[in-house]
Amino acid sequence: MTITQALLSFAAVAALLTIIPGMDTAMVLRSAISQNRRHAYATALGINSGAMVWGIAAAVGASALLAASETAFTVLKLVGAAYMVWLGASLLWKSFRTPAVPAPDTGAFPVPRGGSLLASWAKGTGTNLLNPKVGVFYIAMIPQFIPDEAAPLLMGIALAAVHNLLGLLWFTGIIFGTHVARKWLRTPKVAKTMDRITGTVMIGFGTALALETR
User: Between the CA atoms of 171, 173, 174 and 175, what dihedral angle is there, to the nearest 10 degrees?
Assistant: First the structure.
């Protein structure tokens, strides 16, 4: 298998995984609705940053240790589960508080107080870094797509970059699709509903991750 063939084959697998609805998609969608495109992209870039770290770790063998060590896997799994549940609970709590008043000129919600682009990026990054299933996925998939003649580290980075590019394209479609319907999506009722759905999804993912056995 040549390097080109490896990249194309991995892209086909990554594309299928990217479009499967999951927590990453829910987080970007929620940011696009309740905040704005910049925050949605910051969240998406954070998710991609976490994926890149896992890809590099898989390439140099760090994820192999994670996959082999029951203790390391369990600790990271529980930390990640707690983080997801905390994010989900925060969204649910916010949705049941008194809703913000829509801006009179656009009908859109203002960016929440204290909500910075760095915070949005950090949430996306933390979601992926604290999910050991992402690491296990990379250690299971990336070695299969590294040709003998390729440098493992560079090839691992290239494969993770392909996955990130596909993810960014998918997130862009979600963000701009949301922007088209922003007036409807940002009404108080819809925004609260999206927060509750996203929060429930996050709590569900976190709970499932905590209870899952290897």
Answer: 80
Distance CA(38)–CA(195), nearest Å, equals 18
Ranges under pLDDT 50 in the chain: 101-114
Residue type, 162: V
pTM value?
A: 0.70
Whose CA is closest to 22, among 109, 131, 98?
131
**Tokens linked to 101:** 């008043």
Q: Report CA-CA distances (Å) from 32 to 15, 23, 42, 195.
A: 22, 14, 10, 12
Whether 24 contacts 121, CB under 8 Å: no
Taking the C-alpha atoms of residue 120 and residue 89, their distance in angstroms, rounded to an integer, is 17
What is d(CA 70, CA 23) in angstroms, rounded to the nearest whole number?
A: 25
